[in-house]
């Protein structure tokens, strides 16, 4: 269940969405290691965690610190197969059954404009 937070966890920058490898907004036990996107990422296989492994299929919590749009994560490339949705300023500290399945992620803009250069 999505829950609102007073401040973005781990310092997730305003206007962006942050993904963490582990539950409770942490990666490797710390909250300041996260993957961040401003618009979207149509293929999370192209991104690496700073310590080891790809972001693809390695996300267990996330927070939408965007200012204008909902954010989504998807089971497939190019914003297909929606797994989870977050309204603005909401997060999920545990993706449950959707954990370790995200292959693309983006704000509503990328859902509506998947071929935009902003969504790569």
TrEMBL record:
Pfam family, one: Inhibitor_I36
Gene3D superfamilies cross-referenced by the UniProt entry: Crystallins
Protein name per Swiss-Prot or TrEMBL: Peptidase inhibitor family I36
Source taxonomy: Bacteria, Bacillati, Actinomycetota, Actinomycetes, Micrococcales
